[in-house]
Amino acid sequence: MDMAREQGREATGASGTTAPARGGGGVSGSGGAPDDGAMATWPRGAVRTLAERWLPGVAEGEDDFVCSPAGLWLALAAVAAGSGGETATEFEQLLGVAGDGAAQGVTAGARALAATDALEVATGVWSSVPVYRAYREALPDVGFGPLDPARIDAWVRESTGGLVERLPVELSAETLLVLVNALALKARWDEPFTGLSTRSRPFTDVRGQVRRVPTMHRSVPLADAWRIGATRVVELRCRGAAPARVRFILGPPGQPPHEVLPAAWAPDAQRVALDAEQVVMALPRLALRTRIEAAGQIRALGIRTAFQGRADLSGISPEPLAISDVVQESVLRIAEEGVEAAAVTAVPTRAGSAYRPARVERIEYDRPFGVVVLSDAVDDVPLFVAWQALAPDGG
Fold it and tell me: Please, what sign has the CA dihedral across residues 17, 18, 19, 24?
């Protein structure tokens, strides 16, 4: 890592670092405009590319899943900030950055995302070995502390508002350092569903089995629904000046998730307006939680030396380090009131023509479909990506 060599390599012992704590080691969603400099130094396209390359591995099999491409990118990039040699080359090929560029990208990315209302972003590093001062200074929004599983679990709970209870991986006696990124969103719909419109409807899962599930109904403005090829996309906005946007993606029957989900962040030029005067969506209430052991997937994407004894993470610590695992736990809940919200609110509807039946596009999410959460403050970066393959659990 160049900046470590240029600024000196004074290492601070774990006991002398500043522990990630409430209000530290992260930035909170404020709804303000993202900093122009932050946007310029964060390779947002690399996050989308990572999502598209990672999803085929995540989506193997017939199960539901939820994951965070943005969270994975931020965590790996924070490690890449301390990489050199062949290890840095591999990180750069996957993430678009390494070394000093990765450090700048982590800071810029977290600050850009924090402009989203109701979104919390935090990164922490805990270690039992010294960490270079230059590495800590290159990541000013990252908290550092001693390797203490109980404190890490408390930080995880605080950073996610209780959505994730503890670190998703067990630390062993061989663990010298662990880096953790947390993203958390709790937001209400700008125009909620009404609870009175929720009723039991059939859902045909990926195996062809049919089960009745609680399904919400509402009309959607024509501008908030479109096609990308044969895939239909509906966008629901959350409240706020710079809100999260949640897109629900329904592809052709049988199409795999990694081919359907990228329609959520496809360029605007690919959108085709629906041939309808009214759009009505029928969406199951859902609750998903997934723990992904991603180390094998990351290796398959080209990050190999970082897991080996010859890994060059020499910009982090004077002690030789290598990645032992990459694990992500994600949760997504969609209900009448919003994304992780509890309230009852009426939803306005639009009347059809009095002279002839309106051409209504009914988009019924009654078979496997995708959900992608994006930020209004950052152009089409997938914060959370989910696939509902089986009958939804209404939560």
Answer: negative
pTM, 2 dp: 0.88
Three-class SS state of 80: helix
Looking at 272-344, which runs of residues are DSSP E strands? 272-273, 278-284, 286-293, 327-334, 338-339
**Residue at 308 is within a domain:** no
Contact of 281 with 321, CB cutoff 8 Å: no
**pLDDT at residue 353, rounded to an integer:** 29
Confidence class for position 378, pLDDT limits 50, 70, 90? confident
Distance CA 328, CA 341 (A): 23
Task: Produce one character per residue of 168-188: b if its CB has 16 or more CB atoms within 10 Å, e if not.
Answer: bbebeeebbbbbbbbbbbbbb
Q: Write out the residue range of the structural domain in which residue 247 sits.
A: 188-287+333-388
- pLDDT range class, residue 364, cuts 50, 70, 90: confident
* Token pair listed for 233: 């996309």
Amino acid present at 136 = R
The answer, yes or no, to whether residue 4 has pLDDT greater than 50, is no
Quick one: pLDDT at residue 40?
53
Query: In 290-327, which positions are buried (b, 16+ CB within 10 angstroms) versus exposed (e)?
Result: bebebbebbbebebebbbeeebbbbbbbeeebebebbe
Residue 214 CA, chain-centre distance (Å), reads 26
The answer as to whether 74 is a domain residue is no
Asked whether residue 123 is assigned to any structural domain, the reply reads no
Phi, psi of 342 (to 5 degrees): -140, 105
What's the CATH number where 365 sits?
2.30.39.10
In this predicted structure, what is the pLDDT of residue 148? Answer: 92
In sequence order, which residues have a C-beta less than 8 Å from that of residue 170 and are 6 or more positions away? none
Specify the number of domains making up the chain.
1
Least confident piece of the model among 87-91, 239-243, 292-296, 388-392:
388-392
Mean of pLDDT values over 371-390: 82
106 within a domain of the structure (yes/no): no
Tokens of 79: 């490690």
Which residue matches tokens 């947002």?
44
